[in-house]
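Run log, item B.
One chain of 228 residues. Sequence copied directly from the ordering sheet:
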Amino acid sequence: MNTLSTPVFCGLLLRRQLVLGLRKPIEIGNPLLFFAMVIALFPLGLGPAPDTLAVFAPGILWIVALLSNLLSSDGVFRSDFEDGSLEQLLLAPQPLYFSALAYVLAQWLLTGFLLALLSPLFAVMLGLDAAAIPALAASLLLGTGVLSLVGGIGAALTVGLQRGGMLISLLILPFYMPVLIFGSGAVQAALAGASAAPYLAILGAMLCMAVALAPAAIAAGLRISVDA
């Protein structure tokens, strides 16, 4: 029996995860709905003054994006763990590093990528200057990739727990802070008329480091959780 090559296997795994995600639109809609609801509530708490909302818009948008990603991270591996598919994945001849990367990529496409695409709409709701919107979208594209990879580590470590939602928050939230700082910093720099490129470069470096290291940590975490 021929063994599938690693690229073909990971491509099929990515397609499978995307199809499963699209069959459960509520799981895709939850982070987006949460994002929209929280953005809509901020004018009630801060007041409807456009100038006030525009000042806080970069931090608001990034904090809500972070929490939306956190909301979806817990379920990355849980359904496969419950039906036994995860054990079969660990026994597959293909490297678990690339399989874990395919899982995280699917989760990012269904959450972080969609948030980045819809971010201009939410930015307009908060009165963010149009000149800062490209920096916002670019920072979210890079930053949510890092968030998904770091969230995948927490998901792998807690997948065997019945209620891992709070634990995953405690584990990975401190590692989200640098992404939040430089992501919102890019938008604030664009608002001030400065270049957002240094902040985006740092986010890009974080993403490269996360792509290199996080899948290995996810693979180790999955083996620990399944063997436990």
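Observations after the first pass:
- The radius of gyration is 18 Å.
- The chain has one domain: 6-227.
Flagged for discussion on Thursday.
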